[in-house]
Amino acid sequence: MTNVVVIGSQWGDEGKGKIVDWLSERADIVVRYQGGHNAGHTLVIGEKVFKLSLLPSGVVRPGKLGVIGNGVVVDPWALLEEMERVRAQGVEIDPGSLVIAENASLILPVHRALDRARELARGADKIGTTGRGIGPAYEDKVGRRAVRMCDLADPEQLRRRVDGLLVHHNALLKGLGDEPVSAEALVRELEAIAPRILPYAGVTWQVLSEAKRAGKRVLYEGAQGVMLDVDHGTYPFVTSSNTGAGQAATGSGSGPNSIGYVLGITKAYTTRVGSGPFPTEQDNEIGRTLGERGREFGTVTGRARRCGWFDATLVRQAMRVGGVNGIALTKLDVLDGLDEIRIGIGYDIDGRRYDHLPASEALQARAVPVYETMEGWKESTYGARRWADLPATAIKYIRRIEELIDTPVALLSTSPDRDDTIRVRDPFED
Ligand code: GDP
Ligand code: IMO
Ligand code: MG
């Protein structure tokens, strides 16, 4: 029996939500361990569509425990709102089915304001963040001045924490010519929300450790993707957390030996939302076709996602730094009907050939992809549930991807629906 970690292999939105939902049938616990409500995970179950940001994708299945780990930055107002929205869709959520780490850092209104103000100040150089306050909240965590879940239970400590935090933020706001934040008002807001969120707070590392001892299966749900990782991504156009599989251990307090199989969710083409380098981007008819067919609009912000060809160089890199054992290849159906399909197999930068994406922002910006071209297929793969139903040319494309990224396909997804998933090998049994 193995625990499975699901991570994104590209720039996010690879279809992690769908695959986590599908896998969670055989898991006991689903854990979020990094990121926050910048994530947008879509689950399609028959007629029902769930859009989850902070809630682990297992919540929609009765009897599963959802854990929000210490590595997540939690906006308590956004979380309560999401819980209400999901409850209105008929899902039961209570402290028996959801536990939030008592040592998770909180996202406060001041973080959101700072995120947006900074983006405005960057002008054309903006990161294109989700504006949710993710970066500033992680800065405060690492800066050792964050307000954490457990502080909500102790009025005196909460006041001290808020005072400490505002020394930093009000100096910053003053420098930017903005109004300072009132400590009293912030404490009042937090005290008002505390009784609603505290029933969910718990010792999640212990919950996971006991589950491990009892032989329960844990599914770790990553957010974003390896190319948005703060160390390994296209810095500075990244998110503010580590998105590789190692973070599942630190972000939940489980230790590295809790991780069994790492499944990299990988889109059959590439998308990116927000700014930053994207060598195989197709800012043309092809890109628009992929965007329309794949309905590539952000789950969180509604922004149109940039689209392009599959970049095998980038994904191979993600396989290595993310620690991936096998992939779930998603959205193959979006490529149906194309005459030819291209795959990026390397970069040309200033006349030199690269088999990886170098770390320098300037070099990344000048990376020109080297392509190989494959024949497309005319048949529809939408909703295919058997490998045998796939056209030979589609199988050839999948096999070529496996070869180029040196990682096998474990699952294949052919529509947004939970059930349209082909199992090649079982991540829980591998
Ligand atoms: P996540 O952030 O990785 O969970 O991905 P998102 O939910 O943000 O974006 C993926 C989108 O693709 C969602 O709208 C899914 O419903 C949809 N999707 C997932 N798998 C497939 C697939 O195999 N085919 C198609 N056509 N859509 C899919
Ligand atoms: P899921 O989990 C796609 C991107 C933002 C921006 C950058 C930094 O749904 O795959 P942030 O708000 O995190 O400081 O923004 O990261 N980004 C995502 N892109 N999917 C996501 O999550 C993302 N979360 C953040 O667009 O470019
Ligand atoms: Mg998403």
From TrEMBL:
The active site is at 13 (proton acceptor), 41 (proton donor), 141. Its EC number is 6.3.4.4. PANTHER family: ADENYLOSUCCINATE SYNTHETASE. NCBIfam families: PRK01117.1, purA. Mg(2+) binds at residues 13, 40. Keywords: Cytoplasm, GTP-binding, Ligase, Magnesium, Metal-binding, Nucleotide-binding, Purine biosynthesis. GO terms for cellular component: cytoplasm. It comes from the Bacteria. GO terms for biological process: 'de novo' AMP biosynthetic process; IMP metabolic process. One of its GO terms (molecular function) is adenylosuccinate synthase activity. The gene is purA. Plays an important role in the de novo pathway of purine nucleotide biosynthesis. Catalyzes the first committed step in the biosynthesis of AMP from IMP. This is Adenylosuccinate synthetase. SMART domains: Adenylsucc_synt. GTP binds at residues 12-18, 40-42, 305, 331-333, 413-415. It holds the Pfam family Adenylsucc_synt. Belongs to the adenylosuccinate synthetase family. Homodimer. Its cofactor is Mg(2+). Substrate binds at residues 299-305. It is found in: Cytoplasm. Pathway: Purine metabolism; AMP biosynthesis via de novo pathway; AMP from IMP: step 1/2. It catalyses: IMP + L-aspartate + GTP = N(6)-(1,2-dicarboxyethyl)-AMP + GDP + phosphate + 2 H(+). Binds 1 Mg(2+) ion per subunit.
